[in-house]
Amino acid sequence: MTDKPTTRRDLMKPVQLLGLAFIAALFAGFVTLMSMGFFQTRPADQIQRALIVGLIAAGATFIVTLVSLALLLLAVDPSKVTATVDRPLLVPKNAPDADAPEAAAAPESPRADDGPTEPRA
Questions:
Q1: What is the distance between the alpha carbons of residues 82 and 68, in angstroms, rounded to a whole number?
Q2: Is the pLDDT confidence value at 112 over 60?
Q3: Sign of CA dihedral 24, 27, 30, 34
Q4: pLDDT tens-digit profile of 3-50?
Q5: Count of beta carbons in the 10 Å neighbourhood of residue 58
Q6: Distance (Å, rounded) from C-alpha 94 to C-alpha 75?
């Protein structure tokens, strides 16, 4: 097989990243305009104020979404994207398998901090 290695650019192309941020910004701007009554019959100064606040909300959402997605993409190791996972993710690597017969037969030892609990007065 001559599969080329997965890169960060393959994970999320810049156009897709900008597109998602733009869609989130449009949604935030539209919700802000709706909540401020932009589409209702209102005085001109309230319409203008709603438009300005909607544009600010859209711009802030665009920037926050873009930065957040870019930082999340930095956390992904491109070489591990195509790797198969054959063990539980939250179990440490050196932990014995829970499916092993000796793990089921062995009694659990008490912890050092376990002891008789007495109610405090």
A1: 23
A2: no
A3: negative
A4: 666 666 666 678 888 999 999 999 999 999 999 999 999 999 999 999
A5: 21
A6: 24
The single-letter code of the amino acid at 22 is: F
**Residue 42 C-beta-side C-alpha neighbours within 13 Å:** 15
Taking the C-alpha atoms of residue 107 and residue 88, their distance in angstroms, rounded to an integer, is 23
CA distance 114 to 2: 56
pLDDT of residue 107: 55
Residue in the structure block whose two tokens are 């300005």: 52
Longest distance between any two alpha carbons in the chain, whole Å: 77
Overall pTM surpassing 0.70 (yes/no): no
For residues 65 and 43, what is the distance between their CA atoms, to the nearest angstrom?
Answer: 33
